[in-house]
Structure formats: structure tokens, C-alpha cells
Specification:
- The protein has about 250 residues and is of the alpha/beta class.
- It has a single domain, classed as 3-Layer(aba) Sandwich (Rossmann fold).
- It contains 11 helices and 10 strands.
- It has a 6-stranded mixed sheet with strand order 6-7-8-3-9-10, sandwiched between helices.
- Strand 4 and strand 5 form a beta hairpin.
- The protein starts with 10 loop residues before the first strand and ends with a helix.
- It holds the Pfam family ABC_tran.
């Protein structure tokens, strides 16, 4: 007999509140997603990075729930959340300048035996990293650093990967590589949450787009609709922001 298909979301966020001191940034934020790619777009200062930091435990929430595969994660440490199945590709990459590519991956390689993602699999995905494996993080180009940041996250073999501004400052050829990686992950059953300022890159990675306004998810559109509607771009990304987003 075929087992019943679960209808429970992979990630479920309900009434999430978070901020810094007395400043509330996320206000009763709600969304859910399955094993899919979902984009979050919006103007600067709307709380997108705060959401990322709260999901992965860098910023403790002040209210609400975060559940991954039904398991409640809000309030847990980043280590516990990573162990439960959420990996993070942070804005700015946050690599160690003096550690080589090999050393970055070795830090997470201990528990990858017999898993989908190992250092060898990362090098197969990103041949350029294999060529630069003895170079320190500071000696890598921006594109190579982003490949390494993604490869490091893959070694957690997570159920969900959160990417904050993955295309920032990258050449179009590197963005192409990242788009292919996101599609591959989704095909393999991994969820990817993409926070992006570059609307065209966001839409190439995820057709489902959530728009953040003042700490709330205000609307949901398909990527095609956002690209075809300058009025929506102006309303939600700001006058002039749409042109930059479509670069």
C-alpha cells in the first residue's frame, strides 16, 4: 500500500515577531512553504535580513512560532536549528579570510559520510572551487566566495536552505550558476528560501514571490506577474528600485 502523502508544510511560520531592543522589525509575520523555491522581495529596511537571522537562530524571536517538518524551532540556538535541518547562506558570505577552501569545507565534513553532500560533491558542483582549494577566503573572487558559502551550507545536508542576497555583486555568469544550483536542489527535494533585491535573479530562482513591507508579508505574486507589472514593482520595490532590481 502506498503511504499517504503528508500535507504538512515543510516550513511554517506563524505570528513571528522579532526586533532589536525596543525596535520591533517583524510584526506577526505568517507564511509557509513546501519543498520548493520561494522568493522574498521588498525595499531595503523592510525586515528581510531580520527574517533570515530569526529563522536560523541568530536573532531570538519575541513571539510566534517557527516549525520545520512539524518540529518547533523558535528560540533554539543556531547550532540546534542547523542540526534540525536549516542551512544559511548569509549576505556578505561571512568566510574566514585566512582559511583555505579545503579548510572551510573540512569544518563541516565530519558528518557527511554517506550523505548527499560531501566536500567531493561540492567540488564536483563547483569545479572552480576545486581549482582554488588551497587558496584562502580573502584570495577568492566574489563569485568564488559565494560558491564556497553555498558549498559550506550544502554540507549540512539540510531540508531548507536560506539564501540572503545570493546574487549581490556577482557577474551574470555566476548568477546563472546559482540559479542552476537552486533548481537542482528543489529537484532533489530541498526547499530554498531566497531573499533578493535583484528581482530578475529572484524570479529565475523562484516563481513564487512573497513581498515584504514593514516587517509583514504583504502580498504574494508569481514571478512572471511581478516582472510584467511595473506598477507592482513601483509600489513594492520603490520608484527607481524596480529599475535596479531588473538589472
Amino acid at each position: 500500500m502506498t503511504p499517504p502523502v503528508s500535507t504538512e508544510p515543510l516550513l511554517e511560520v506563524r505570528g513571528l515577531r522579532a526586533g532589536y531592543g525596543a525596535s520591533l522589525v517583524l510584526e506577526d509575520l505568517d507564511f509557509s512553504m513546501g519543498a520548493e523555491a520561494v522568493g522574498i522581495v521588498g525595499r531595503n529596511g523592510m525586515g528581510k535580513t531580520t527574517l533570515c537571522d530569526t529563522l536560523v537562530g541568530f536573532l531570538p524571536p519575541t513571539g510566534g512560532e517557527i516549525r520545520l517538518r512539524g518540529q518547533r524551532l523558535d528560540g533554539r540556538t543556531p547550532e540546534k536549528i542547523a542540526g534540525a535541518g536549516i542551512a544559511y547562506v548569509p549576505q556578505g558570505r561571512r568566510l574566514f579570510p585566512s582559511l583555505t577552501v579545503d579548510e572551510h569545507l573540512a569544518m563541516l565534513a565530519r558528518r557527511t559520510r554517506a550523505k548527499r553532500w560531501t566536500p567531493a560533491a561540492v567540488y564536483e558542483l563547483f569545479p572552480r572551487l576545486a581549482e582554488r582549494r588551497k587558496h584562502g577566503g580573502a584570495a577568492l573572487s566574489g563569485g568564488e566566495q559565494q560558491m564556497l558559502a553555498v558549498g559550506r551550507a550544502l554540507l549540512l545536508n539540510a531540508h531548507l536552505i536560506v539564501m540572503d542576497e545570493p546574487s549581490e555583486g556577482l557577474a551574470p555568469t555566476i548568477v546563472d550558476v546559482l540559479v542552476d544550483v537552486v533548481h537542482r536542489l528543489v529537484d532533489e527535494g530541498v526547499a530554498v528560501l531566497v531573499v533578493e533585491q535583484n528581482l530578475r535573479a529572484a524570479v529565475r530562482m523562484a516563481q513564487r514571490q512573497l513581498v515584504m513591507v514593514s516587517g509583514r508579508l504583504e502580498a504574494e505574486f508569481s514571478g512572471a506577474e511581478l516582472l510584467d507589472r511595473p506598477d507592482l514593482q513601483s509600489r513594492y520595490l520603490g520608484v527607481g528600485g524596480a529599475d535596479r532590481a531588473l538589472r
